[in-house]
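Researcher: I'd like a structural prediction for the single chain below. Treat it as a standalone chain; there are no partners to consider.
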Amino acid sequence: MSKATLSISAHALGKRHGRAWIWRGMSCSVAGGGTLALLGANGSGKSSLLRILCGFDGASEGELSWSMGDEGLSRELLPGHISYCAPDQSLIHDFTVEEHLAFHRTCRLPSEDLTLQDMVSIAMLEGNEHRRVGQLSSGMRQRLALTLAFATPSAALFLDEPTSHLDAKGRDWYRSLIADHRHDRTLVVASNHDAEEVPSGAKSVVLGLNA
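Model: Treating it as a single chain, here is the predicted structure.
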C-alpha cells in the first residue's frame, strides 16, 4: 500500500451547472488517514463534491489543495494516488471476473500482498471467476467494483454510496472490507445519510438542496 496518505483542504468551493448553483461556500478538510463523510439527500450535490475532492471535476469557484506528507500534490497527479468507486462506475461487462481483475492489475500497480485469487475471495466471487461481469447480479458487481478500489495501493479511497445494491450480508461484507483492507488510508464517503456506509468518528459535511 502507499506509504503516505492524502490530505485535502477545500475553502469556499462552489459548483455551478449552467446558470444554476448546486452549492456555494463549501469548506471542508480531512487530514491524512482521516475519514470525511459527505451527507445529503438525492440531488444535494454530494457526488459532485466527491468528484471535485478527488480531482475528477473542477470547482466553479473556491480553493482546493491536496498534499501527501509535507509535499503538495497537483490535480494532474492525483489519479495515480487514489482509488474510486461509485454506483454508476463502468465495469467491462464482456470480461469475465478473472479477466477484469487481471486487466485492472495491468492498469494499476497491484498490491504486492494480494494475488488474483485473493481478490476473487475478497469479493466473495469464488466459483464465478469465468462468468462474464454482465451476467453477475448488481450486488456481485458492486462487490467487484469495491474490491478493485480497496485492492489497489493508494493514498486515499473515494466511495460514492458504497452499499448501493448490497443486501444485509453485503453491507456486513462492506464493513469488514473497511476493517481489513483500508490500511489507514484517507477515506471520503458520499452517503445518503446511511450510517452503515460511514465509519464512526468521521468528520461530516451535510449538503442541502438549494431552494
